[in-house]
Each structure stands twice: as structure tokens, then as C-alpha cells.
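yo, TolC family protein is done. seq:
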Amino acid sequence: MSKIITYITFLFFGFQLQAQEVLSLEDALKIALENNFEIKIAQNNLKIDATNNNLGNAGILPTLSANLTNNNSQLNTKQTQADGSVRELNNAKNFNLSYGVGLDWTVFDGLSMFARKEQLATLEAQGKSELQATILNRISDVYLTYYDLVQQQQIMASIDSAIVVSNQRVTTADNRFSIGKASKLELLNAKVDLNTDKSLLLNQQEVYKNTKIKLNELLARDLQIDFKVVDMITFEENLNYDELKDLANKQNPQLQAQILNKKIAELNLKQIKGNRYPTVRLTSGYNFTRSEASLGFITQSSGQGFVYGINASVPIFDGFLQNKREKTAQYEIENASLVLNQQKVALESQLASFYQSYQTNLELIKIEAENVEIARQNLDITLAKFRIGTITTIEVRTAQQNFIEASVRYATAQYQTKISEINLKELAGTLSLD
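structure:
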């Protein structure tokens, strides 16, 4: 009987395999990396950080600008000269034009510009950590959803095997009833159990299809694309807690982002302290000027040449605002340190919890694998006795349900182990794409 169940199940899923695309985990991960919206957004944010990380944005480079000024007037003018004579002219036209290029360069600002440049580089590094965290999160989501489908396929296979047995029970009960060796009640009970199994399968198929839609959403492709996943869950059995903890402290993206966030706060304080020092600016340019006046000693003038100068300012008193800004920056550094320590504790707690689940589920797999084999043997023996009429249908149904429940628990234990493994690798920053 067990061979018949296995054969029919193989035919059922073999037909499904031919009718649907087989989506491997590697292909799913590749599609997610290419299409996932959150990964694309994080990639663009990193490009923004990289674009902003430049000398000009830090204020280190000079600025060069072209300028043009053109002023015109038309006035009724009256001028009294030094000798007492009066000169008048209506609609006197005046014209002033200046144009050229100017260069402005801050050569010293208390080293704040260099702190800003380092801060921009740190922001870019933080963007890389955030991109890595986003990629790891989405990879983890694909892993979990994919293996959830594998688990559900295994559960459907178990339910389908139960339907095969229920169909056989209905056939056997019908034959026994037709020759008067069984009551109508036995036949009706067998049909009820068959319909119960079919209903269970339909509900499981609904969950399976909805999970497919969820995976298609993660892959950012047509939600109605149909596919099949592999039928086995593989997992590592030798993950070491100390190694995972060491890797997490070195390369966990969230932890690295908090370390960089503290550095950004420290650089912000460095910039604020730079305001205590003098600011020195150099100015230079090449200008052209021209002016015309209808009335006056000079009716026309023009000039061209270099202009240059230096500007220096020293802060003396600003109403104690500088001290307050520095204190605020110090508090921000303290908060960043607290958040960093909090992240370390949370990371270690998550690692310990997931590792405990990982170890427990490895043991459960061994137990449930043994239970499946025992339940299968029990079902075979029960069906053999049922065919010769030595046991009741209730005993058959009990053996049948025990087999289904054992198979579901075994599939669930495998999936839970895989969840723990994926979570541990995600925290350690070692979740690979293959």
C-alpha cells in the first residue's frame, strides 16, 4: 500500500512538474536582486550619497562666477557748481555697466571643511551598509518564502496520500456493503472522511497559491506567474554560535550602520567647534566697467583689470549659542553611543534565541522523521487488517490522521530549522546568494 501511495504521489507531482516552471532558489534570488523595488531604492540612495561626497560639497574648492550689472537712468538734473553757477538738463541719461568673473575661496574655517568631507565619506559608507542590510533582508524574505512553499508542497503530498487511502476505504466499504458484509454507516463514514481530506487539500492549495503570489511580489514580476519549487529542504547542521557571534560583531549591516552613525555625530561636533576659529576668504576677479552721464565733469569712463582682496572674521560673542550647539552635539554623540550599545545587546540576544531554536529544531527533525516512518508502518498494517475486516473504520481513520499529522510535523520541523539557519546567517551577514 505504501508503494502505491508513493507511486500515485509521484505521478501527481510529476504531472505538476511538467505543467509548471520549476523555479530554483538561485533563480529566485537573481530575479529579486534585479527587480526588487526596495533594493533599487536603496541603490539609488547610495548613488545620492556617492554623488554628494565631493570636495565642492564640503566647501574645500573655490567658487567661480560670472557677473553682469547694467544700471540706467533718465532724470531731470540740476547741478550747482563750486563757483555758484547752475547747470540744468532735462532727461539727462546716465549709464553704468560692469561685468567680469570673480573667484571666492575660503582657505581656512577652523578645519570644518575637512570634517565635512570626512562626514560625507562616512555617509556614503553608511549608505553602503544600508544597501547591504536591504539586500540581506530581501534575500532572507525570498529564502523564507521559497522554503515555505517547499514545506507546503510536502504537506500537500501528505494530504494527497491520505486522499488515496480514503478513496480506497470508500471503494472497500462500498464493496463490503454491496455484498452485505458492512453497514451503510461504514460507507457513509468513509465518504465523509474522504470529503474532509479533499477539503483539507483545497485549503492547503489556497495557502500555497497565496504564498506563490507573495514570492512573485518579492521578485517584482507578474503576480500570476505559475511555477513549482523544489521538493526538498536542505540545511546546515554544524553552525557554530561563537563563530556566528564573531562574524555578526564584524559585519552585521545594522551594527555597522550604528557605528558609522556615531562617527557622523562626532564629525558634526568637530564642524561646530570649527566655528570658534577665524574664517579667512580670498577674493579675486577680472572686471570690465563703463559709465556714461549726460551732465557732470565726467561724461564717460571705462576700465578693466584684476581685483583681489582678503576677508577675515573672528567670532567674539554670539549670545552663548556656540556653547549650546556644542553641548547639543555632545548629547547626540552620547545618544549614538547608547543606540550602538543597544544594538549590540539586541544582536546578541537575537543570535542566542535563533541559535537555541536552531538546535531544538535539529533534534525535532530526528524525532519527527522517526515518527513519520512509524506512522507509515502503522498505516500499512492497519490497511491490511481493514481489507480482511479485522478492525473498524475508526481505527483506520486514526492511523490515517496520525500519518498526516506526523508528516506535517516533520515538514514543519524542517522549515523551522531552515528559518533559524537563515536568521542566523542574516544576522552574521553571511547569507549567500547560492
